[in-house]
Amino acid sequence: MAFLTNKKNAFRRLIFAVIFLSCFPLLCLASSPSQDVFLDLQNIQRAQGENLGKPDWAASGLNLLVPGTGYLYLEQKRAAAAFITTDAVLWGSFFFTRLTSTRRFRSSIGFARTYAHTQSNLHYSHRYWSALSNKNFMNVHELNQAFQTDRDFDLQFLDESEFFSWDSEQYRDRYAQMRSDATNWRTASTLMLGALALNRAVSFVVARVSTKRYNDKIYSAPLLAPVADFNSGNFGVSLIFWR
To answer: What is the largest CA-CA distance in the chain?
Structure first.
């Protein structure tokens, strides 16, 4: 009788071992490739005692500096690639629009020096260059007369290098269009800066949610673990969550 009991227990142990081995691939699939696979309750308890999670401020801070790097920290390569690519495109667009704006402003100054005969060295953003595009005036004398009429004496252009006189209205209108195009490019570059700031704000906020999901995935990942009670003769597979 004892022989049959031992044989029966050995058979149960064999079945338990087969089930355990059959569960091993499922254990590997249930766990993230970047995490260790824990096969028994002792290792699971040890994992609960270790700080395997990542602080949310780390990923958010990295994304605030360079959007996407926080997702690399969280091992989310697709999200990282999306944000890094977006940031790179926005920076490229910003430099392109800003340089294009500067070139067009300087080109308009060269045009004014040729057809309005001005020799001013004022910066292209100075109000003087905008005054040259005013369709109500053809020369500096008309402009200064308007300032005197409005009693804006401090706004007059009295330096000889700032004197101008357009050869024709067509040249003046062409200059006004050049200034308008340059201003539009400058506005576009400002919008690119706003988009860069928005990209950082979005990645900063989303990184906190992603960190929480990352930590939940670590501590709440389901594992299949074989269980057995040789006294009662019961055995099977248990679905275990880390927390």
So the answer is: 125
Among the listed residues 176, 175, 195, 203, the one whose alpha carbon sits nearest the alpha carbon of residue 97: 195
Q: What is the pLDDT of residues 152-208, one digit of tens each?
A: 888 899 889 999 999 999 999 999 999 999 999 999 999 999 999 988 888 888 877
Range of lowest pLDDT (36-40, 85-89, 90-94): 36-40
Give yes or no for a contact between 183 and 124, defined as CB atoms under 8 angstroms apart: no
User: Domain extents for the chain?
Assistant: 32-220
Would you call 131 exposed, middle or buried from its count of C-beta atoms within 10 A (0-12, 13-18, 19+)? middle
DSSP 75-99: T-HHHHHHHHHHHHHHHHHHHHHHH
CB 238 within 8 A of CB 225: yes
Buried/exposed code over 117-130 (b: 16+ C-beta within 10 A; e: otherwise):
ebebeeebeeebbe
